[in-house]
Write a structure and sequence with these properties.
Two copies of one chain form a homodimer.
Chain A (H helix, E strand, L loop, with lengths): L3 H9 L3 H7 L1 E5 L1 H8 L4 E7 L11 E4 L1 H7 L8 E6 L16 E5 L4 H13 L4 E4 L9 H7 L7 E4 L2 H10 L4 E10 L10 E5 L7 H4 L4 E4 L14 H13 L2
Helix pairs in contact in A: 5-6, 5-9
Chain lengths: 247, 247
C-alpha cells in the first residue's frame, strides 16, 4: 500500500527544486537500486510483490503493479523503485587526485548524455566529475537511470568553472579543453593527471571558461566531408577518457 | 494542407514492414532534411509555413503547426519533415575497402545506440556498417534522428554475420570482436584494414558469429571495482573507432 502523499512526494522528485528541498532522489530497477543501497542511505524502497526484489531489508514496501505504475517515471515500470537521500556535496572538488584525470563539463544539458558520461567515469575509474552550474542536475531521474549505478561511485561536483580552472592552473595542473579548432589529441597527447573540459554540443565551452583553458585540443574528424559531421558529447568524452587512460 | 491518407502513410512508416512495402522512410529537422536532400530522392517534404524551411524546391508542402503535430514522431515537432525513398541496399557489403576498417554489429537493438554508431562512422570516415539481421532497422525514425544525417553517407548493410566473417577471413582480412574476456585493445592493437564485430549490450556477440571471430579483444575497465560497471555499446564503438583511426 502506498499513500497519496507518498505518490505526491515521489512525483515532486522529478524537479530539482523539490529534490533539493527534501534531500531525496529516485532510482528505478532491481540492479540499480541494489547497487545504490550498497552505498547510499535509502529513504524508502518500493517493490512489486513477487517482482524479483528478493533480499530486501525491512524497509521494502510491497506494491501492486498498478501502484508501481503510479510512482514510476519509466514507460515500462521496473519491479523496484528506490528513494534515496542525496549524498552531501559540500566538499570542494579535489584537483586531479591520485594520478587520476578529472573531467569537467560546461553546460551539458541532455540528461542521457550526462548519465552516460557518469557511467563512463565509473568504467575508467575517474572518481570526480566537475560540472558547471549550467550542466543538468545529476539526480534528475533520467541521469540516474542512464548512469547505471555509477552515480553512487562517481562524485559529481557543481562549481563555477572559471574559478576552479584558475585554481588548478595555479597549482600547476594541466588544463585542457576540447574545441573544434584545437590540436589533435592524437598528435598532442594529454598528460595525466590533468583536467579536461568539455562543452555542450550546441554551444561548446563558454567564453568565460575558455579564458582559463591554456591548452586547446580536438578529436579530429577522419571524414573527407569535414564540417558536416559532428560528434555527440558523450562519445567525445569516451574517446577522451580512452586517450587519458590507455597508457 | 495535408490529406488523411498522407497522415496515415507517414504514421505507417514507424514500422519496418510498411517502410519496406512502400520503399519510404521519415526524417525530421531542417538540417537533417536538408542534408538528406543533397543525397537522397525525396518523396515529399513538409514544412511549417514561415518555419525556417527556406530554400525548398517545388515539392515542399506548407503546413500549419497543428498539421505538423499530426505527422511528427517527435514530442516537440521541428519545422520540417521529409519522406524519402529508401536507398537501394542490394549490393553486398564491401570488405575493408580502401584501407578503411569496417564495423559490424550483432544484435544491437536500441535505436539510439544504432543511430549514434552510424553518426560515429560518419565522423571517422567509415563508409560501411555491416549489421546482423537481428540489429535494429537503420530507417527506424529514431535511428535516423540519432544519426544526425550520417545515415545518408554511411552504407548500412544487413547480412548474416557468420557467412560475411567467413568470407572476410578467407580473403585474409583480420576479423576482431569485442568480448569481456578478450585481450586489451591497448596492448594488442587492432591492425587496419580489418573488421571489428561488436555485440548487443545485454547478450554480447552471438555464439554463431563468435565462432568466426579469431581475435578476441576487450576495452579494459580502469575501475578498481571491476565487474560492476559496464560500457554502453555506442561508447565502446567510439573507443574502438578512435583506436582504429588514431594512427
Amino acid at each position: 500500500m502506498i499513500s497519496k502523499s507518498t505518490i505526491r512526494l515521489i512525483a515532486s522528485l522529478a524537479h530539482k527544486k523539490y529534490r533539493d528541498e527534501r534531500g531525496l532522489f529516485v532510482a528505478e530497477g532491481v540492479k540499480l537500486v541494489s547497487d545504490l543501497r550498497a552505498r547510499l542511505k535509502p529513504y524508502a524502497i518500493f517493490a512489486i510483490a513477487g517482482g524479483g526484489g528478493g533480499g530486501g531489508g525491512g524497509e521494502v514496501v510491497s506494491l501492486s503493479e498498478a501502484e508501481m505504475k503510479k510512482i514510476s517515471f519509466l514507460k515500462t515500470p521496473s519491479p523496484m523503485l528506490g528513494v534515496f537521500y542525496l549524498p552531501r556535496s559540500g566538499s570542494p572538488p579535489l584537483l586531479a587526485q591520485a594520478n587520476r584525470p578529472t573531467l569537467a563539463l560546461d553546460g551539458v544539458q541532455d540528461p542521457g548524455n550526462l548519465g552516460a558520461i557518469i557511467r563512463l567515469c565509473g568504467w575508467f575509474g575517474i572518481d570526480t566529475l566537475v560540472c558547471s552550474p549550467s550542466t543538468a542536475d545529476c539526480y534528475n531521474p533520467k541521469v540516474v537511470q542512464a548512469s547505471m549505478g555509477a552515480i553512487a561511485r562517481v562524485a559529481v561536483c557543481y562549481t563555477g568553472l572559471p574559478g576552479f580552472l584558475q585554481a588548478a592552473t595555479a597549482r600547476g595542473i594541466p588544463v585542457y579543453g576540447t574545441f573544434l579548432e584545437g590540436q589533435s589529441i592524437y598528435r598532442q597527447p594529454l598528460s595525466s593527471p590533468c583536467i579536461v573540459v568539455m562543452g555542450s554540443e550546441g554551444r561548446g565551452i563558454s567564453p568565460e571558461a575558455a579564458r582559463h583553458i591554456p591548452q586547446k585540443r580536438c578529436i579530429p574528424s577522419f571524414s573527407a566531408r569535414c564540417g558536416v559531421e559532428s560528434l555527440n558529447v558523450a562519445m567525445a568524452a569516451a574517446i577522451v577518457c580512452s586517450e587519458l587512460c590507455r597508457k
